[in-house]
Amino acid sequence: MPPQLALTLGLVFLGIIIYVEHQNSKKEVTGVVWIIALWILYTGSKGLGFFLNVNTTIEAGSPPDRYLLLSLGILSLIILINRHFSLSTALKQNTLVSGIVFYFLLSVLWSGAPEVSFRRWGREAIALIIALLLISEKNPVQTLSSALKKAVYVALSLSIILIKYFPAYGRSYGRWSGEVMWEGIASQKNGLAMICVISILFFIWSISQTIKDRKYFYSKLMLLVDSFMVLLALYLMMGPQKTLTYSATSLLSLIAGLISLAFFRVKSRFSKKIEKNILIIAVILIIIGITIPFSGKLPIKSLPKLLNRNETLTNRMAIWSSLLPYAKKHILLGYGFGGFWTTFLREQIGSHAHNGYLNTILDLGLTGLFLFIIFIIKLLNQSIKLLTSNSQAAVLFISLILMLLVRNIAEVSLGEFTSFFMWLLLAWSFILKTGENMSLHQEEVQQG
Q: Which of 216, 265, 280, 421 could be a cystine partner for 413, CB 3.0 to 4.6 Å?
């Protein structure tokens, strides 16, 4: 099939399913949902500059992306002002998030690249503004659900089209091995796998809710579309090798999320013991994630072999060893938000630390890592408390949090709120503060 024809048919397909989804949810959401969907899509993508063939570096930044984000931020602020939304009240209600974002700004003072750090902080400020825009909606939970569906429909559909018909945009090749890697709209293969595992968990959760409530007559078409998206996400996650271990970290994250989802779907009663055990599991995962790069030892020595990996975890051990001297040199405060990774270091060492905890230490030191750990544990604890009220939204986000903790052992989705994963948790933290304690499914008009 000619690439242009494939793209045209893909866009028509996208237009149809997004139209149907929006028709089913428009009574509960406003036009704001399109801003949030675009933002979510952007957080998981390579960025506008890449697709416009803008040559840039970390130090220079990407003008097209800068203008897009500024436009989203300004538009969001205008809407918030017109709605008479109290920014100060919302920020005071979530002082921990406000404190973390302020710490980002403060770290510009000791950053080795203050201009880069300040520019990165600007993106975090926009992430915060869009989260506030979300909770200015009458039904922020449904708005988030609808926006996430729209964004994922686009992300998965465009990814398969780019990979199959526009390989210059959808594929990359190993620097030394020449191995083909599927990226789709994402910046790297593990980024695409991350989108896939979140999509699989989200759609399985949504489908199970539809089946549980026996709303086939209302959701038959979207049930079919969502089921197709699960299969598409699974296919993309398996990569050109057609194996589940193509992205081993994503596979482990997905397993953790699905086990959590299945457990809480089956469990009808929750006790203090269960709540405590969930927190203990989270703390253990965090401790493992922090200690592995510093010790160079795995808690389960046979795990790499089971996942078709060597003992170096695809050279992650070497990357961690190279980064440890840098981390120890500025262990308390780090090199400033966005101030560590330069074009030179990425060429010499890697694209990132391949460990979210170490990567956060490099940028923000142990101080920043501690703030993020407190944020995650607090958010997890608040979500657990909602289980007694049978909140299915809490079930979904507890599973996402556990997935996040597993992923950060060998990948990076921590240390900022502009990543696909972390922004969803940021949005959930603000929703909790608005008193949204209802089930996400009960608040959501199921797509049909």
A: 421
